[in-house]
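PROTOCOL LOG
Step 1. Enter all chains and additional molecules of the complex.
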Amino acid sequence: MRIITAVLAIASGLIVLLGYFFPTQLAGVRVLLIDWAIILGGMAVLVGVANLVFVQMEKIRSRHKNGLYGALLIVSLIITFGLGLLFKPDHQYMHAVVNAIIIPVEASLLAILAVTLVYASMRLLRRRADMMSVIFLISAVLLMLALMPTPFGPFPGDQLITFFLGMFSRGGARGLLIGVALGTLLTGLRVLFGVDRPYGGN
Amino acid sequence: MSIELISTVVGLILTLMVFSYLIGDNPLFRFAVYIFIGSASGYAAAVVWHYVLTPKLIEPLTDPSQLLLLIVPLILSITLLAKLSPRLSWVGNFAMAVLVGVGAATAIGGALIGTLIPQAEASMNAFNLGAASNNVDAIYRMIESSVMLAGTVLTLVYFQFGAKHTTGGSTRRNAVIEFLAWLGRIFIAITLGVLFAGVYMAALTAMIERLSSVVNFLKSLLGL
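Step 2. Run joint prediction.
Step 3. Record the structure below.
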């Protein structure tokens, strides 16, 4: 069983990867495998949603303290999914769900982040007042002062601040991006070599 | 009552419920968040059903010429449902293996073609002074490119954790690497500070939008 799953993962991965190097010979198989993966990914989303419902139902059954909220989640999920199945996501009823629930709550959660970020930065200075924390906060405050509109007009030296911070941060961001890409590359190769088997074949 | 008015009122109530978190975690906040998770999951499932599974799997099944190609994903999709049962979970491992294998290969291709090569090219192209209008502009571009290259290299050095064993049994990085990594930390701190400022401004914009929507609704309600 373990060997079969590993062979499936390595073979499908290698075919897709080789498709990058032999685009004419392997294009058809590569597209077919990616289409299969898209279908499986879609099915995995449905399985994940079903699992969410089962977990909440278990909370209700065991009279967990958050069971009532779980019932609320299931009801809102079933209503939205039912409406989505009957009508398409483009229908006005689905737009109403998005405009009434999804967008306002998402925007409000992002809004309260503004307050929690200020609180977190104050805690950072209290807990770790080292040079790096100071550089971090000074660059954040300076950039906000340079970019945000003030009642007194532009902040003095705003262009110089954005130039220097942009120059330093672009270099750092490029290093972080390359680091993330190298990490992704390595993780992918570990899966293709069968060293990591996150599909349950270890 | 029109659908627009109902969705505005519901949105307003949910906004106030989420804002109640500012005085601490409370049942109103949880109520809004659980409804949000349910609706967002249901919406995502509906989108997947209509825009992924129906056009790629269900509709082509009626076409006999495509039936053969779809048997494998159909069987694998059905086996994926076994993941819902702890006893039968292993049946879904075959589908997961294909998903992870293709995902890993796509991630490798994306990391190479989408990030590593373009970023390396951009670092090199920054030193192309042909586009400079005059000598002063060329010097300015040279300084900017050099600082950016230094930032890229030093940031990568910071994540180099190779170390040698010392006579005391502990491990320690080379002194030069240690110094370069310290410089890299400065670049990372500035970068994260800039990112923090960006996130903060986005959050502040969202807060202003939400507050103005509440105020506008109250104004329209009172006829102001």
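Step 4. Note key features.
Residues 87-127 of chain A form one domain.
Chain A has three domains: 1-86, 87-127, 129-202.
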